[in-house]
Specification:
The chain is built from 15 helices and 46 strands. The protein has 951 residues and is an alpha/beta fold. Among the domains are: 147 residues, Alpha-Beta Plaits (2-Layer Sandwich); 94 residues, Phosphorylase Kinase, domain 1 (2-Layer Sandwich); 247 residues, Transferase(Phosphotransferase), domain 1, CATH 1.10.510. A 15-stranded mixed β-sheet has the order 1-2-3-4-5-6-8-10-12-13-15-17-19-21-23. α1 runs antiparallel to α5, α9 packs antiparallel against α11 and α13 runs antiparallel to α14. The radius of gyration is 37 Å and the shape is elongated.
Length: 951
């Protein structure tokens, strides 16, 4: 028998090849195990009623449901893929945020916006030093702000608005030197605004409105060199005054201190040249309105509901962009200067509202003729006794903006067909261009104006330039003002007009969405900060980006890929180690191994030790014509012993993946297992440096071979159900009746063998582990902690991530086998994972489209029950899977529901020596109606009858 010889140069070559392949694998496959475990813990903390996290571990980084966004992006470092972005926007999630988030130390974007997450913000987020965007707004978070967040050196944006967070703002936030955006509005934050925040060199937006802040307004905030918006409305700075230093905030665009219990005079604001919006209403400010010059950029002056006295100064005249001048409910007196509205030029879209109600104004100075776009309210002033102005003194409602629709549809296209959800692109240069838009919920959080109409065109220009799309692609469908004031709008973004494509391609959808979710659209001084409310994909995009609400990939896909890479690493390491040992200690190693096997074999009863010569004789010297299979362990031969017994001989090859430990494990385990659905071990060979195991011969080969079309006749549904039941009974025996119980750890279709009667038997126990035993206190652990081993595509994702092997790990693998029985597909093929593909088909109502066409006709009700059971076995979470006893019970129930003729025919057909029953010979007498494998519809959500293309 020839042996491999290799010198030192060969060892170096093998080392280099292994290292190169590992680096290549690492660059594309290996996710950091610590982060993988953390992700699963995070996921378990988030209750997900719509199963929107089923794509958590998909290789495709981003998915969507109808309104939400899920992104799971990675970056490469130190030989691992690390989580870079975790975006769960608008996914209807509840539960809490896990401290395990702190393990995602390479993450840059953490986005859980617009869910129902409760609990507190974990302080461990402060460990993510690479974090740039912390986006938690629109949830139900409580508790205080962790001071650890103040030590994130790269944080650009913190959005925790619209939660129920309480407690003070930590002084440590003054260390956030790169932070530009503090969005903490609409919470219950209390205490004093830390004066230390004045040290923040890059802060541009400070939104703290609608909280319980108290104390005084820190004058030091005037030192913020780049602050554009200071919005502190609806807090309680009881009795404090507005610091005079605020009049020197030279970059400020918006100052909003509405309803803050402020007293004292209005400061001189003439040192703020770019001020566009000032709201000091609903306080107890007194004194007169400062006569100092206001600059022409001003759009809004809101000073109502104070204790102001004196006259209306002339500096409120000649302001070309003024939209609102609201001075109601004060004690202003004297004349009303008509220069406020005179000499204004208007393009027809601009409006000016002047609210002077409930003051002490006595007369006009100038003309009372108002331009058509100016509204004047004077109710409650002495001037209303003048008959010339009575038209301005009637009862007026407050200025309320209702929803306004702006879509520019033209009647010329109405007679043509544009089937929903496709729409006409209103601005398209191509007449009546019909396309599927992206629907975007969008809100301006602190705009610098009160009237949007004059700014619509500039907004469209700003947003399309930011998104790098054509101006005609954007359509503002509707907009509405909300409390704040904040401007909410719904946008439609249409594909580029041409004659070939009426939808966006995948890369363009991902690009546009990432610009919204990554805040890469440049900030605007006029429009202020924005937020994404939802990103809705219409039906035509289901194939562009898989819908996470209908996708069911489990963690098995990524676990399979990763375990393959790990197996490669183990293989290379084993090969290199083995070669080096052979170069130096080969004879000693062989002798030691033989002595060890001899000691072990003496302890095993009922297992025969064969000689190498007996094995060679049985296989005609291992002739290739005797070979019936091959796997990672080695080759399998059909042999005939001297007594005429037909056996299967599994012969290990040098450098076998299983190795000595697995070889001994299989002998030890199989020697004491006796069940009709487990392959029986007859003996072994331990001579000439060989490892061979001798089994009973299974004439119909592996289940994988039967499903892959290698058999002459296909298996019908009854035969497949019988195989599933037999395999399950064998595994149930391992879990409950073996002493001690055993976890198989490598259940797969190629380890389920079929005898001459097509009775299924579970084989290959080389990776099996004994179940845990009670400790000294009688407590039985629920798992075995062990190094991860198994086969890609079948591997339990929880076991892979936690290294905790349980009986439910076998249940997951068996569930994958069930899906193979139903579909004929391998677990992983061409980048597709069987669990994901069946989940997609099931949730979209197209489940019968993936059934194996080789199965012939089948009872649809039972097939659907079988599918549900299989998918339940393949749940990501261990606790969601059934036990093996539940699986067997469910399969037995299905078997009892089988049409009697088919179950009897299946039983009788297996008596012949391996001849498979022709499905076409099935009787038409049934307990349950059959459905042809290529026609279905009654069970489909859509009601559409799918056409099945044979694979």
């Amino acid at each position: 028998m020839s042996r491999l010889r290799i010198g030192p140069f060969g060892v170096v070559l093998v080392v280099w090849l292994c290292w190169s392949s590992l680096l290549m694998g690492a660059n594309s496959q290996i996710t950091h195990p610590e982060e993988g475990t953390a992700l699963q813990v995070i996921k378990r903390n988030l209750i997900d009623p719509n199963k929107n996290l089923s794509n958590w571990n998909r290789g495709d980084p981003c998915t969507s449901n109808w309104t939400g966004v899920l992104c799971y992006n990675t970056t490469m470092d130190d030989g691992y893929l690390h989580v870079k972005e975790l975006q769960l926007l608008n996914m209807n999630l509840s539960g809490s945020l896990s401290p395990a988030l702190g393990y995602l130390s390479y993450m840059k974007i953490l986005d859980f916006m617009w869910n129902k997450i409760s609990g507190s913000i974990p302080k461990e987020i402060g460990n993510i030093t690479s974090l740039e965007l912390l986006l938690l707004n629109g949830n139900q978070l409580t508790g205080s702000l962790p001071e650890e967040i103040g030590y994130l050196p790269n944080l650009d944006r913190i959005q925790i608005d619209q939660n129920q967070i309480s407690g003070p703002i930590p002084k440590s936030f003054a260390n956030l030197n790169k932070t530009k955006h503090f969005h903490m509005n609409n919470n219950s934050i209390s205490g004093q605004i830390p004066s230390e925040l004045s040290r923040l060199p890059n802060l541009v937006h400070m939104l703290l409105d609608n909280n319980n802040l108290s104390g005084y307004l820190p004058p030091e905030l005037a030192k913020l060199p780049n602050l554009l918006i200071l919005q502190l409305d609806n807090n309680n700075f009881d009795g404090t005054t507005i610091p005079a230093s605020y009049g020197n905030m030279s970059h400020l665009l918006k100052l909003s201190l509405r309803n803050c219990s402020l007293q004292g005079p209005i400061p001189d604001l003439s040192g703020i040249p770019n001020l566009a919006y000032i709201d000091l209403s609903s306080n107890q400010l007194n004194g007169s309105i400062p006569p100092n010059r206001l600059f022409e950029n001003i759009t809004t002056i809101y000073l109502s509901n104070n204790n102001l006295t004196g006259t209306i100064p002339v500096n409120l005249s000649g302001l070309p962009y003024l939209q609102r001048l609201l001075l109601a409910n004060n004690s202003l007196n004297g004349s009303l200067p008509s220069t406020i509205w005179q000499n204004r030029t208007s393009n027809g879209n601009e409006s000016l509202i002047l609210d002077f109600r409930n003051n002490m104004l006595s007369n006009f100075s100038g003309s009372v003729d108002l331009p058509p776009n100016v509204t004047l309210w004077l109710q409650g002033n002495p001037i209303c006794l003048n008959a010339n102005v009575v038209k301005f003194c009637g009862s007026q409602s407050d200025d309320v903006n209702n929803i306004q629709k702006l879509t520019n549809s033209t009647t010329v296209c109405l007679n043509q067909s544009c089937p929903p959800p496709y729409e006409y692109s209103p601005q398209s240069p191509l007449s009546c261009f019909c396309a599927a838009p992206l629907l975007v919920g969008y809100r301006l959080k602190s705009p610098g104006f009160w009237d949007f109409q004059p700014y619509i065109y500039s907004f469209e220009d700003y947003l399309t330039n930011g998104l790098k799309v054509n101006l005609y692609q954007l359509d503002i469908d509707t907009f509405v003002w909300e409390k704040g004031p904040r401007l909410k709008m719904y946008l439609k973004i249409f594909p580029v007009s041409d004659n070939y494509s009426h939808v966006f391609n995948r890369s363009e959808v991902l690009r546009i969405r990432s610009m919204f979710t990554g805040w890469t659209i440049p900030d605007s001084d006029v429009f202020g900060p924005y937020e994404l409310l939802n990103f809705t994909l219409l039906d035509p995009y289901k194939d562009v980006i898989p819908l996470s609400s209908t996708s069911g990939i489990s963690g098995g896909a990524i676990a399979g890929i990763v375990i393959g890479a790990i197996a490669g690493a183990v293989t290379c390491s084993a090969i290199v180690t083995l070669l080096i040992l052979r170069l130096h200690k080969r004879k000693h190693h062989t002798a030691s191994k033989k002595r060890l096997l001899s000691r072990i074999s003496m302890k095993i009863d009922g297992v025969k030790a064969f000689t190498y010569e007996e094995m060679a004789l049985a296989t005609n010297n291992f002739n290739s014509s005797s070979q019936v299979g091959e796997g990672g362990y080695g080759k399998v031969y059909k042999g005939i012993l001297v007594d005429g017994t037909v056996v299967a001989i599994k012969r290990a090859q040098e450098g076998s993946l299983q190795g000595e430990k697995e070889f001994l494990t299989e002998i030890e385990i199989l020697s004491r297992l006796h069940h009709r659905n487990l392959v029986a071990l007859i003996g072994y060979c331990d001579e000439e440096g060989e490892q061979m195991l001798v089994y009973e011969f299974m004439s119909n080969g592996t289940l994988r071979d039967q499903l892959s079309g290698k058999s002459k006749e296909p298996m019908n549904f009854a035969m497949r159900l019988r195989v599933a039941l037999a395999s399950s009974k064998g595994i149930l025996y391992l879990h409950t009746e073996a002493d001690p119980p055993i976890f198989h750890r490598d259940i797969k279709a190629s380890n389920i063998l079929l005898d001459s009667k097509f009775i299924a038997k579970v084989a290959d126990f080389g990776l099996s582990r004994l179940a845990p035993v009670p400790d000294l206190e009688g407590i039985l652990p629920g798992h075995v902690s062990t190094v991860v081993k198994g086969t890609p595509g079948y591997l339990d994702p929880e076991y892979f991530l936690t290294h905790k092997l349980t009986d439910k790990s076998d249940v997951y693998s068996l569930g994958v086998v069930f899906l193979e029985l139903l579909t004929g597909m391998p677990p992983i093929s061409h980048g597709k994972n069987i669990v994901r593909e069946v989940n997609i088909a099931y949730h979209s109502g197209m489940i019968f489209s993936v059934i194996d066409v080789q199965m012939g006709s089948y009872p649809s009700e039972l097939v659907e029950k079988f599918i549900k059971l299989a998918l339940k076995c393949c749940q990501d979470e261990t606790d969601a899977r059934p036990s093996m006893s539940d699986v067997v019970r469910e399969l037995e129930s299905m078997w009892n529901m089988m049409p009697e003729s088919d179950s009897r025919m299946t039983e009788s057909s297996t008596i012949d020596s391996g001849k498979v029953m022709n499905p076409s010979s099935s009787s038409s007498t049934t307990k349950n109606p059959y459905v042809s494998s290529d026609v279905s519809g009654s069970d489909l959500v859509s009601g559409v009858i799918p056409t099945i293309t044979p694979r």
